[in-house]
Amino acid sequence: MKNMKNLTLIRHAETHPQQILESDKDRALTQRGLHQIENIAKQLKEKKYLPDYLVCSSATRAIQTAQFLCEKLEINPKLINLNPVLYSGDIEDILKSFSSLNLSHHACIIGHNPILSSLAHRLCPTTKSIILPTAGVISLGFDAKTWDDLLIKQGKLLFYIEPQV
């Protein structure tokens, strides 16, 4: 079991449309988005999934998603680590940042599309038909000693969750 790594990708929940003079990065969650998070948290609890490390985009909507998810899963929000690469980077940048996860076995990345769906497709070809909806979840398992192994290993799909709101 020690050589298993679990990576869960969560797209931020629904947001308000971008307003004139508002930065895309500052967009906040809608009430429906908060309900989406409640729904996926319930499904994650049913699967007995609890991350031991969360990496989150620096965008407001992703941070709100991470904080509300921590509250609903009853885990310490101090597990949230902001990584600007998740907002503005590409798959290669994200993969290179995985070495920071090495103390973790169950990491969770909260970010945006299309990058999260593309990352899932790269790490697990069986996810190619999945395009993450808002608050969608893809969880992947890897037979790997370190997170750097994900640069060369393929994962298997453990579960996919679509919020039912």
Question: How would you explain this protein's 3D organization?
Answer:
The chain is of the alpha/beta class. It has 5 helices and 6 strands, in the order βαβαβααβαββ. The protein has helices spanning 31-46, 60-73, 85-88, 91-96, 115-123; strands at 4-11, 53-56, 80-82, 106-111, 137-143, 156-161. Helix 1 (31-46) packs across helix 2. It is globular. The model has no long low-confidence stretch (mean pLDDT 92).
- Shape, per Cα inertia axes: globular
Instruction: Please trace the helix and strand order, writing H or E for each element.
Output: EHEHEHHEHEE
* Average pLDDT rating: 92
Indicate the structural class: alpha/beta
Unreliable residue stretches: none
What's the end-to-end separation, in Å?
35 Å
State which percent range the strand residues make up: 15-25%
Helix content: 25-40%
Radius of gyration: 15 Å
Question: How do the strands line up in the largest sheet?
Answer: 3-2-4-1-5-6
Note the main sheet.
6 strands, mixed
> How many E strands?
6
Count of separate DSSP helical elements: 5
